[in-house]
Amino acid sequence: MILLAMVALAFLISLLTGGKLSRLANLPLRAPWLALLGFGLQLYMIYSPADMAQGFLSLRTLALIGSYIILLVLIWLNRRLMGMLVIGLGLALNLAVMVANGGYMPITPDAVKAIGFEYQLESAEIGSRLQDSKDVLLPREQTNLWILSDIFILPPPFPIPSVFSAGDVFLAIGAFILIYWTMHNRAFSPAEEENAGTRMMNEEN
């Protein structure tokens, strides 16, 4: 949720400071189909029925871990774009804690209660994935790399209470930088799209 909030804020601030939405359409993003594949795998996993964590033998955990690897490849291919490496750091931190805990993002029962989602605990056991999420329910003492898990809490009365990780913070910051930079970069104006792409190829050579 913090990512969506930061993206919305980036759009608002960029527009108020003279940024152009049209420049986003002309961002020279390499292999954009990797983003569709990565997010598609995540949607498959998130909206499939919740289950007990089954380590890396589960098709769902393989899909989730695979989606992060695909997105990291996308980041590397586009690393010269402003903000991409920050996004990559966020993805890597989230991937690290998920791998260390069997493939899902750990969240404690206390964190779930803090945002008012106690009802999810009624049908969830320790070690099970919360429905419609990438989170696995684990107490702090059973969580590997706890500091990288979902430990930051925005409780009520925030409009949308949520829990997020250090990796999510870097993802949000990177997305803000990328959007703001792109919307203010005159090289990505429609008339200059071809020149921008040529410059990027020359830089890599």
Compact overview of the structure:
It contains 8 helices and 4 strands, in the order ααααβααβββαα. It has helices at 2-16, 33-46, 59-77, 84-100, 109-114, 118-122, 166-184, 193-204, and strands spanning 105-107, 135-137, 152-154, 162-164.
Give structural notes.
- The chain is mainly alpha-helical and 205 residues long.
- The chain has one domain (29-188).
- 52% of the residues lie in helices and 6% in strands.
- The strands form two sheets. The protein has a two-stranded parallel sheet. The chain has a two-stranded antiparallel ribbon with strand order 3-4.
- A hairpin with a 7-residue loop joins β3 and β4.
- The longest helix is centred in the first third of the chain and has 19 residues, at 59-77.
- The protein is globular, with a radius of gyration of 19 Å.
- It starts with a helix and ends with a helix.
- The relative contact order is 0.19.
